[in-house]
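Notebook p. 47: complex prediction with iron/sulfur cluster.
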Amino acid sequence: MSALSEGEVGFLPMLEAANIQLLWHPSLSEESSTDVLVLLEAIGEGRQRLDALCIEGAALTGPAGTGRFQMLAGTQWPMMRWIEHLAPQARYLLAIGSCAAFGGIPAGGANPTDARGLHYDEDQKGGLLGEDYRSKAGMPVINIAGCAPHPGWILETLMALALGQFGAEDLDSFGRPRFFADSLAHHGCGRNEFYEYKASAEQLSDRGCLMENLGCMATQAPGDCGLRVWNGGSFCAQSGYPCIRCTTPRFGRTETAFFKTPKIAGIPVGLPSDMPKAWFVALAALSKSATPQRVRQAATQAGAHMPAKAKDPS
Ligand code: SF4
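Predicted complex, structure tokens below:
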């Protein structure tokens, strides 16, 4: 749903403009039943060229490795078997979303359906297809992580692949495209002035930084959400919802409540991944002692909307 409204013109016109032909999508395409089976069989037998296979959702391999928790309607096969059948034919294989990439929420807790990512079981290589899987172009699975992933991440990856301008060197250590995964979701947040002074919100409607008390994990979350923003205007933390680190492999297994920052001796357990922990602790103490009065006061005032870039909260 978020992808459909991507950009000025929307997802499908942008695919068309990039000369990418959508062979089939379960919600967007008119073909169903026999037409789809004919297409899938042609791909599986190598009669239909398949440049990019995009899979959404975790592969459910239960019960007992049969995959029968998740059948492809109208066929006798579970989804995992279809994926295993089609993946060797794909020039590129893309896992769309953190469930397909790492298992995501279905793989959390007791994982009753034996959910797996295509190429990872959470942060361990393997997944449904095994560590050694490579697509026809010699690439590992491209993990467009996120819950949901930004539609721009999907489209720009497809466009770069179509232009032949994307290779294994453009992926990070978890197979995520570096053009978005080399940033942190925290970069560009409108609450950054509060973050710098450690002027923290105490409840969700406050204007201050959500990291110290309300569980924001954007300083550890790969993604350019704060720079790219969603739907042209905002992103989670800016809109008042703490970042839940949805682009990371173990996000479905978050051990603490999403709206509470776990701490030891008053120091958040999850510290920013772009600076050494000792620096952060020292700088945080210094910043707090230098917080201007206007910033300290504004941090705990209600603020319904935060602009894309930091502005003077006074
Ligand atoms: S609310 Fe989250 S994303 Fe925004 S400045 Fe604080 S830590 Fe960064």
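Notes: The domain at 3-181 is CATH 3.40.50.700 (Rossmann fold). The mean pLDDT is 91.
Next step: compare against the earlier run before touching the bench.
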